[in-house]
Design a protein that fits this description.
Largest sheet: 6 strands, mixed
Helix content: 25-40%
CATH class of one domain: Alpha Beta
Structural class: alpha/beta
Number of helices: 7
CATH topology of one domain: Rossmann fold
Radius of gyration: 18 Å
Distance between the termini: 34 Å
CATH architecture of one domain: 3-Layer(aba) Sandwich
Length: 230
């Protein structure tokens, strides 16, 4: 999958408008790309551009040639998004219902939907929780549920915005393991830098710009120096 970000800027309106992205240009073709930066650096806004959750004020974002502003529906079919807090995307009462929700418009036979849900629940160790109230799962289980609910639609690209921020080290490592086994291309923002050690490429954001773009080792070293923790 090819993502092209062409001279993109974005300003959040308000009494004191804030420019969060400033003339960002980058092309992404690698299978695993990490995004790091301090809070407020622009990385979350950058991720939301990828499936049209945010439309740039200037410039264009294209996913396999599709403009996210003009072709939002088709882009969202190809690009899945996992938020930091899984409670923000858990919709249905039970675990199985929430995973199946993504297929509501596909008009598939009920047995096919049930089969696909069962496969994902087993894949993520949630098969014993199918009828469990979704919002009563543990934090790690909720993040796995959110991931399953996105993957049921079989996107080509998965965007993950700090999916381990609310998790302890054990659950963060489990999410990292699961991400490493996905067939989809992944664009992952995180403060858990060790999760990116096996990635193909890492972008470093600061002040709304990409200030480093390299392999994980050099990019993370640059970021640590930038933050004064080298």
């Amino acid at each position: 999958m090819r993502v092209e970000v062409d001279h993109v800027s974005h300003v959040y309106p308000g009494p004191s408008p804030r420019r969060v992205l400033d003339d960002v240009t980058v092309e992404l073709t690698q299978r695993r790309v990490g995004v790091i930066g301090a809070n407020g650096s622009g990385k979350s806004t950058f991720l939301r551009l990828m499936n049209g959750l945010i439309v740039p004020d200037a410039g264009h974002v294209r996913v396999d040639g599709l403009d996210t502003a003009k072709d939002a529906r088709e882009v969202r079919r190809r690009v899945g998004f996992c938020f930091t807090d899984p409670d923000n995307q858990i919709i249905m009462p039970t675990v199985a219902e929430d995973v199946a929700f993504g297929l509501r418009k596909a008009k598939l036979p009920k047995d096919e939907v049930a089969g696909r849900v069962d496969v994902l629940l087993r894949r993520f160790g949630l098969e014993g929780h199918a009828e469990h109230p979704a919002h009563l799962l543990s934090g790690g289980q909720k993040q796995l549920l959110a991931l399953a609910s996105v993957l049921i639609t079989e996107p080509d690209l998965l965007i993950m915005d700090e999916p381990t921020t609310l998790l302890d080290l054990r659950n963060a490592a489990e999410i990292g393991r699961v991400v490493g086994e996905l067939d989809q291309s992944v664009l992952l923002a995180t403060h858990h830098l060790y999760l990116l050690e096996s990635f193909d490429r890492v972008l470093v954001f600061d002040g709304g710009r990409i200030v480093a773009d390299d392999a994980p080792g050099p990019a993370i070293a640059f970021y640590r120096e930038l933050m004064g923790v080298a």
